[in-house]
Amino acid sequence: MNILSIETSCDETSIAITQNGKKILSNIIVSQVKYHKKFGGVVPEIASRKHSENITLILKEALDKSKLKIQEIDLIAVTQGPGLISSLFVGINAANTLAYIYQKPLIGVNHLIGHIYSAQIENDLKFPSLVLLISGGHTELIYMSNHFNLKTIGSTLDDAVGEVYDKIARNLNLSYPGGPIIEKTAKKGEDIFHFTRPYLKNKNLNFSFSGLKSQ
């Protein structure tokens, strides 16, 4: 089965074509970092506009690289959330249009579940599984007893890890995105300051990262 997948949940426009859930025929990603960098974070209006500009070009490139024609696609998948509403709309609109014109089945995908199942490209998931999901604005601990039973057993009570990195980088006048530049800068420093680690003594499995910004 050839699946064409569209992802526009935040600031990267991506289309991938996979075969039988394992073989990646093409995976085209266009980043928008240079447009959001001066703002220190993603600007939704800019993100959606860039998605609109890129989506058709990326579709052609993905099909060309896969050496498939759109008629050979068996199913279309698209991120339906969570994400920026205006960005999601671009991908969903493109997917609906393709599905209607070429009469292809269409499924909406939760992109957090997509992150989990991306691991299955190389290794089949085994159950029960414990998943630490860290993605942009999300930090969650998920227990999976099978493919259809997922339970969030812990999550951030305030900022996600990615948000903290970006906010700290902005406070230190470092570039965006914050994660890579903070990691690079930290490797040049000395281990002389130890951050407080909250919630270690709590009985729940939640996280808290907002305090890191003020230490």
TrEMBL record:
Domain (Gcp-like): residue spans on this chain: 23-214
Keywords annotated in UniProt: Acyltransferase, Cytoplasm, Iron, Metal-binding, Transferase, tRNA processing
Broad EC category: transferase
Claim: Cell inner membrane is one of the keywords in the record: no
EC number assigned by the record: 2.3.1.234
Record has Repressor as a keyword: no
GO terms, biological process: tRNA threonylcarbamoyladenosine modification
InterPro entries attached to this UniProt entry: ATPase_NBD, Gcp-like_dom, KAE1/TsaD, TsaD
Record-level Gene Ontology MF annotations: metal ion binding; tRNA N(6)-L-threonylcarbamoyladenine synthase activity
UniProt cross-references to Pfam families, sorted A to Z: TsaD
Catalytic activity: L-threonylcarbamoyladenylate + adenosine(37) in tRNA = N(6)-L-threonylcarbamoyladenosine(37) in tRNA + AMP + H(+)
Protein name per Swiss-Prot or TrEMBL: N(6)-L-threonylcarbamoyladenine synthase
Organism in which the protein naturally occurs: Lethal yellowing phytoplasma
